[in-house]
Amino acid sequence: MIERDRRRIVVGVDGSAGGVEAARWAAGEARLHRRQVQLVCVYSWPALVPLAQLPSQWTEESLRAGAEAAAANAVAVVRAAAPEVGVTSVALPGLAAYTLIEMSSGTSMVVVGHRGHGGFAALRLGAVAAKVAAYAQSPVVVVRPGAGDRALSPAIVLVGADGSPASEAAVGVAFEEADRRGGEVRALHSWELSVLPWRGEVWPPLPDHTEVEAAVQRRLHQWIQPWQDKHPRVTVEQRVTGTRPAAALIEAASDATLLVVGSRGHGGFAGLLLGSVSQQVIHHAPCPVVVVR
Predict the structure, then answer these.
(1) pLDDT value of residue 254
(2) Cβ–Cβ under 8 Å, residues 114 and 55
(3) What pLDDT is attached to residue 115?
(4) Global pTM value
């Protein structure tokens, strides 16, 4: 039975180094947010070539025992990192991504490692992390290898802002997290000059780059100011850039504690649940990435 509790942070673990990293990072967040941690290890029969004979040691009991052992190891990791945090674990049969997505509707956040067991080593993002980030109903945090141990001071929470509803939610989360950490917000907006079609032999006048950048800066200030008013203790750095959004965010995240992005911004296709920018940053950003809806 799947347990739901918005006071809990749900963490997907599978015995891999990525799962351990996610559990360790979630322990610190649970202490900061005064939440409990629920570790979830989902097990299923490995995919085999049709008609191939199953290894004799593979039984329902052995799969469950392996999942319980992985969950118990993650419990030890959480208790070592944050002894005061309440932690529970559960091993469930099923498919990992779909189980975590189902659990997300009743939790404060879902945390997953960047990659778990299985798949191809060359892939930079595991299938479970990608699916959970795309479909979960709560904020999802993807923790890359080495990113969970960042202890930067002061904390810098980087957020991508483009005025979309998901971006507005991301800005709000960024201010809350920076306030909670006693850190600062770095708000970044990327813009590009639009190329308008024309006819005739005379080229249209080019926009004044300085004026456009000033207008973009004012727009970013308008998006940020309401949240600055709600969190007056938080220092804010506002950046505008002509670099493409994903590349700009990945570069700016080099010294960030946390990167917050909306699941979808402006542009793209409405039917896609995860925008291209959020997909790229969870692939490549050097710090933990929060995907917000």
Answers:
(1) 92
(2) no
(3) 66
(4) 0.85
Q: Does residue 154 have a cis bond before it (omega within 30 degrees)?
A: yes
Residue type, 233: R
Tokens of 42: 């989902």
At position 287, the amino acid (one-letter code) is C
**If DSSP codes are grouped into helix, strand and coil, which group holds residue 167?**
helix
User: Is-contact 259 119, C-beta < 8 A?
Assistant: no
Q: How far apart are CA 64 and CA 99, in angstroms?
A: 15
Q: How confident is the model at residue 197 (pLDDT cuts 50, 70, 90)?
A: low
- Count CB neighbours of 86 within 10 A: 14
Phi, psi (degrees; rounded to nearest 5) at 263: -65, -30
pLDDT at 243 over 80: yes
State which of 17-21, 68-72, 118-122, 264-268 shows the largest mean pLDDT: 68-72
Distances (CA, A) of 287 to 81, 149, 264: 19, 9, 20
Positions of E strands within the chain = 8-12, 36-43, 87-93, 109-113, 140-143, 156-160, 184-190, 235-241, 258-262, 289-292
The helix/strand/coil state of 20 is helix
Q: Can you read off the two tokens belonging to residue 174?
A: 């960024």
Q: Compute the chain's Rg from CA coordinates.
A: 21
Domains with residue ranges and CATH for the chain: 8-148 (3.40.50.620), 156-292 (3.40.50.12370)
Strand partners, 105: none
User: What confidence tier does 146 reach under pLDDT thresholds 50, 70, 90?
Assistant: confident
In the chain, the amino acid numbered 166 is A
Average pLDDT over residues 218-246: 94
